[in-house]
Amino acid sequence: MKFSYYPGCSLERNARSYHQSTMAIAEPLGLEFDEVEDWNCCGATEYFAINKIPAYALVSRNLALAAGQNGSRELVAPCSACYINLKKTDHALAESPELRSKIDQALEAGDLAYQPGSLNVQHLLETIVKEVGYEAVEEQVTKPLYNLRVAPYYGCMVPRPSAMESFDDPEHPMSMDKLFETLGAIVVDFPLKAQCCGGHMTQISEETALEMIRRLLKNADDYGADMIATVCPMCQLNMDAYQDAVNQHFGTDYNIPVVYFTQLIGLAFGISPKELGFGSELISADAALAKVTEEPPKEKRRRRVKKNAGLPMPVMPEEG
Amino acid sequence: MSEHKEHNHPQEKVGVYVCHCGSNIAGTINCGEVSEWAKDNPHVEVSRDYEFMCASTGQELIEKDIQEKGLTRVVVASCSPHMHEKTFREATERGGLNPFLFEMANIREHGSWATNDKKAATQKAKALVNAAIDRVVHHQPLEKIPVEINPSTMVVGGGIAGITAALDLADAGHHVYLVEREGTIGGHMAQIDKTFPTLDCSACILTPKMVEAGQHDNITLLSYSEVEQVDGYIGNFQVKVRKKARCVVEEDCTSCGICEEKCPVQVIDEGYGAGLGHRKAIYRAFPQAVPGYPVLDKENCIYFQTGKCRACEKFCPTHAIDFDQEDEILNVDVGNIILATGYELFDARKIPQYGYGRLENVFSSLEFERMINASGPTGGHVVLRDGKTEPESVAIIHCVGSRDKNYNEYCSKVCCMYSLKFAHLVHEHIPGAEVYNYYIDMRTPGKGYEEFYNRLLKEGTHFVRGKVASISEADYLPGEEGKLIIQSENTLLGKQQRKPVDMVILSAGMDPQPDAEEIGQLFKAGCGNDGFFSERHPKLAPVATMTDGIFIAGACQGPKDIPESVAQGGAAASAVAKLIGQGTVMMEPIRASVREEECSGCRICNTMCPYNAIEFDEEKEVSRVITALCQGCGTCVAACPSGVIDGAHFTNTQVLSEINGILWDVQTEHEKATA
After folding, report:
1. Nearest-10 crossing angle of helices B118-136, B652-662
2. Where exactly are the structural domains of chain B?
3. CA closest to A190 among chain B residues
4. CA–CA separation, B64 and B129 (whole Å)
5. Does the domain at residues A2-124 carry the CATH identifier 3.40.50.10310?
6. Which residues from chain B sit within 8 angstroms of residue A316, using beta carbons?
């Protein structure tokens, strides 16, 4: 399967391990990535709040380049902000002819053009669970992540692409949960999995940002997670780089590594941690990864109904 | 009359009447213009417009014109035939013509109500009137077919609506087959502890009715049974019922309960027990079950799974256990059928952020009903999932799955009231407990309902107006540890708020039965967009369906509380009793007939007929329609390769003339070319 690939700025710097691990798992997953040539920054979250038209123009240039490259109709972005901006822009151009005429002018100055709807923007998580599928992932697993307790963190953007339809439940996404189960890991219930990490709030009000990050770390810790796995460079940076600050500010002692979901896929595929960019995280994942065992955890026996054992839980439907 | 003869230019005198319907039609359509224009049609003898054609004065116009002007055909342009076709057919008949020499043009629902464009609506009205005129000149006089009504009735569903309908009919002296899918009748009402707003005991008012239905001489109770096939038509339905094997010989069983006691298997009771309690593999849903014989659940029975055990058989004092019992097929003839198949509770797992099935102390409303029931698994004590701890604070979430475009757009109507009831019962069981009701709007229309709400306000329940965003154990503020945290909006304060509580009850709404669509197809009762059965008219025919002889009652038609369900059960019974009292009904003579002299005997129609209403005459080698069985669907008319089957009132000439009439202002390609 061939996909156009838009890495975004973060993946060239702080989130290099995200890029490395994505490239490392591409082949076993049967994915062929064709990077958009001469791409530019997507404007992140701020530019849209300051001046919409240039912000849309900035993103449209990337769409135009990707569409002009004749690679694939499918455009994949691993970064949540890039994904939202690309998808949002394509949608806004289709919805508003007024906006479109302005953007057309801007693109024309650079000899570019973009027809809305000619690309299908996907987040990398969507590509892996929808296009590749859990079964194909499972087939590649050689070193299951037995006994590793993972908190899947989706962040606020990926499950909620605004006016557009989401590939997962916006309030309680499950796609990454299922993915990690496929890899053999123990997925902990993580109620805050679709809450905001604070984004760039660290630059505006550090105190607010630290409280938001603390909530996430506490929640993952409460459920006994060995690590948090994320789909977004911003989320990774906030929870990883600010974990010390949180500990200092609140007197806590969290020590939870935050990694990219692609790194865990790579590990389960038997790829070396180094090739997957492990080691670049500030809170080392080594101790957590040492918990992985070769034997699967023992399955709990179905308990017989005992007297005074409390009331039964609602019976969950069989997974179809 | 053959099709060829119909093609002769009929010299008919048509009367056209364009109705204003007050301003309903005349507000958009220029009725005077339409009636003047109609005069140009060569068949038209007289054309008038009138304020209300359905009024007696309007009908008299038709009668008078038939008599004085010698009309031979009548066209009324007004509302839908569902409303007044019968009215005008009768007026036509009183004037001295066969009632089928009438045709109706629907210029209200298909015209004035569909648009505000006066010019377009008037133009369309002309087309519809012209079509009716061109059609009616080809109409044939027809005679209605009398049909006798079998006085037996089938009621499908043994909840409170079905029980009421069955008892009303049985008390009036008519035989009723009451068919219930489960092992006992009683339905959802049997699961409930107290009923709002009077707080009287649900079982105390229901069980006498159940017993009465079980013992009534005029009621044949078919429990643990399902309808598989329905043939026939009003007055003469043939129903095939599968009586599932319960592995208990009813004649021998004394309902002593020893089998239940001795059965070593305990499983979660997902039916009557709403998943909160347990039952055995051979069980009665509850001690007052009607009928009292237990049902053996083969999937969980050790004997059926492993071939060993047979404890129930061993201990049964009357040897009533029969492991080899097989399903029985019963063929039942009835005149009318009442569907009272009820509802299913909305599955709160569809809203994952509310944590049902994931968070221990989140309960569904039916679970809570079982919990507060004195005969339920906790003996009526309000406790957490551990079975012993009393909650100090309880949140009751209204509108779970209702009034939400992601799930059901409609209001489930009963949840506000039962949520209030829950709040009251929590206060009663645990004095001093804090109760929070999260509501979007408080909806309490009903006798004594608003008064009950006022009572709750005085009892100290906290009412929070706002939709709940999530329920989780993700604590991060002081005082939240170990609690369920309700994240919600408070629209009265204009703020987001978090509230830690011990227990959450989800007031789930009412869903149609998951197989309502299939049941509907079986009985030819349609479902609306919401999935509930559709009534014939939302105001004037709430328990009838579009199929004669099929009625609906209770929550299968839409969310309803007990009083409303009982009222509908009674209404459906009285509608059926009316037909039984009439003895015969006249059926539309819209039937197919084969022109035998032209039939090639290919028998294609025999296989196509969905009602098995076509027989083959081996001697003459022709097909023949059995008029009594024919439903006038038209399948054979379309299928006949020789075109020798006529559908009365829908002949090719009639339909083609109508189409020609409607296209009066459309030029054909040929006409355009030669113009």
Report:
1. 150
2. 3-144, 147-243+330-342+513-587, 245-326, 344-510, 592-647
3. B474
4. 21
5. no
6. 349, 357
| Count of alpha carbons within 13 angstroms of residue A43, beta-carbon side | 22
Please give the CATH number for the structural domain made up of B147-243+330-342+513-587: 3.50.50.60
Strands B295-296 and B282-283: antiparallel
The pLDDT tens digits of the residues spanning A104-152 come to: 999 999 999 999 999 999 999 999 999 999 999 999 999 999 999 999 9
Regarding the domain delimited by B3-144, which CATH topology (the fold level of the hierarchy) does it fall under? Rossmann fold (3.40.50)
Domain boundaries for CATH 3.40.50.11810 within chain A: 134-289
Global ipTM = 0.86
Contact B476 A215 (CB under 8 A): yes
Residue to mutate among B270, B472, B498, B503, with most A CBs inside 10 A, is B472
CATH of domain B344-510: 3.50.50.60
Q: What topology is assigned to A134-289 in CATH? A: Rossmann fold (3.40.50)
Chain A residue nearest residue B361, CA to CA:
A313
Instruction: Give the whole-angstrom CA distance, residue B462 versus residue B395.
Output: 9
C-alpha gyration radius of chain A: 21
Q: A41: which residues sit within 8 A by CB, 6+ positions away?
A: A8, A9, A58
CATH of domain B592-647: 3.30.70.20
Chain B residues with CB-CB distance to A under 8 A?
A: 266, 268, 270, 275-278, 349, 351-353, 355-358, 360, 364, 367, 371, 377-378, 383, 385-388, 469-470, 472-476
Domains B147-243+330-342+513-587 and B344-510 alike in fold: yes
Mean pLDDT by 10 residues, chain B (675 residues): 45 96 96 96 95 96 96 97 93 97 97 96 96 96 93 98 98 98 97 95 96 98 97 92 96 94 94 92 94 95 94 96 97 98 96 94 97 92 95 98 95 97 97 97 96 95 96 94 96 96 98 96 93 93 93 98 98 98 92 93 90 90 88 90 92 93 83 75
* Segment B410-447, tens digit of pLDDT: 999 999 999 999 999 999 999 999 999 999 999 999 99
A251-274 pLDDT per residue, tens: 999 999 999 999 999 999 999 999
**Model pTM?**
0.87
Separation between Cα atoms, residue B47 and residue B62, nearest integer Å: 11
Chain A contacts to B (CB-CB under 8 A): 169, 171-172, 174, 189, 191-192, 214-215, 218-219, 222, 305, 308-317
E-assigned strands of B451-579? 462-465, 468-472, 484-490, 495-501, 503-508, 510-512, 550-552
Of B353, B364, B378, the CB nearest to A172: B353
